Amino acid sequence: MAGAIRFGVVGSGFMGQTWARVIARHVPEATLVAIGGGRRAAGLAREHGVEALDLEALLAREDIDAVVVATPVPAHRPLAEDAARAGKHVLVEKPMTRTRADADAMVATADAAGVRLAVVSQHRFRGAPMAARALIEGGRIGRIRMIRVFGPNAGWDIPPDAWNSDRAQVSPYMDWGAHACDIIRWLTGAEATLAFAQFASYTDVPPADQSAMALYTLDNGVLVQIWLTYELPPPSLGSAMQMVITGSEGIIELDAYGTVRLGTADGGWETAFEQPPFDPLDPGDSLRLQAYASQLRDLMEAIDAGRDPLVSGREGAATTSWLEAAEQSAAAGESVRLSLTSRAS
């Protein structure tokens, strides 16, 4: 890498804390310069020995090369565009935004400014999904036919005063589905052509729509089923990101937080990978932060090389199309067809 890249973090909640720790403690080539935004900004800045600044001052700093946007979703577009216009590279938290139109505008602004735009999708950099992708690329299950994704949760795991407990800020499906849809796109190399979704609420705990089922048809014929719920009675049914990937010659069981198993007709089931346990709700868990550190390094390498990061703004925009189509389908009670412009380009 040509030299250290200097970061400002906008947002001081759970993900702001996560990215501040990653930059300051887990990627030696990165330098944390300042924290901006949120009621915890001053304390988080003190923790890392950096300045707490308002957004205008942070973006005016010549010693900041890149900005991590870790704020509520409605602020993603204006903050990312302001940062890009200020000549800063941008890493924006998921979901990138709520509409494909906003996502495309963010990409266009970054392109016009000549900066790199990346979207958080740490599961692409975590051991279990990477092991599953290696099995697929190695031909171990043949041609993918169907995928089921399961996010079983016994209770809403976000404090009631958090911004993402407000359905008007972001839906539970869009918040969690950003991971599921991006990983499906990454594993299949395909895009959705048709979406049908239904959302439901079985408790009075906000936000609404804590249970969702979505179906997608992909342009290579793969069928996808996604089931998300925070409304299971205890005990839960395992981790919050489980997948079954069926192919013409085998099956992969993928727990993004645990074990990857390969099933084949001639060999039965074998364990292909096992993720050491970590706490996904602890912003300081060092094993949890490894995937975030890897994504940060990818962005830094992309900046040095003048290439798109692995999870670029264009990738994020394509994932947003899937999420927006599910939202539209659930609201209308009918399937939604995705246009050719939904593809990443």
What does this structure look like?
- The protein has 345 residues and is α/β, with parallel strands linked by helices.
- It folds into two domains: 5-122 and 287-312, Rossmann fold; 123-278 and 320-342, Dihydrodipicolinate Reductase, domain 2, CATH 3.30.360.10.
- Helix content is 34%, strand content 25%.
- It is built from nine helices and 15 strands.
- It has helices at 14-26, 41-48, 55-60, 76-85, 100-113, 127-137, 172-188, 286-305, 313-332, and strands at 5-10, 30-36, 51-53, 66-69, 89-92, 117-119, 144-152, 192-200, 211-218, 223-229, 242-247, 250-255, 259-264, 268-274, 336-337.
- A nine-stranded mixed sheet has the order 14-13-12-11-7-10-9-8-15. It has a six-stranded parallel sheet with strand order 3-2-1-4-5-6, with helices on both faces.
- Helix 4 runs parallel beside helix 5 (100-113), helix 5 (100-113) packs antiparallel against helix 9 (313-332) and helix 7 crosses helix 9 (313-332).
- The two termini are 27 Å apart.
- The mean pLDDT is 95.
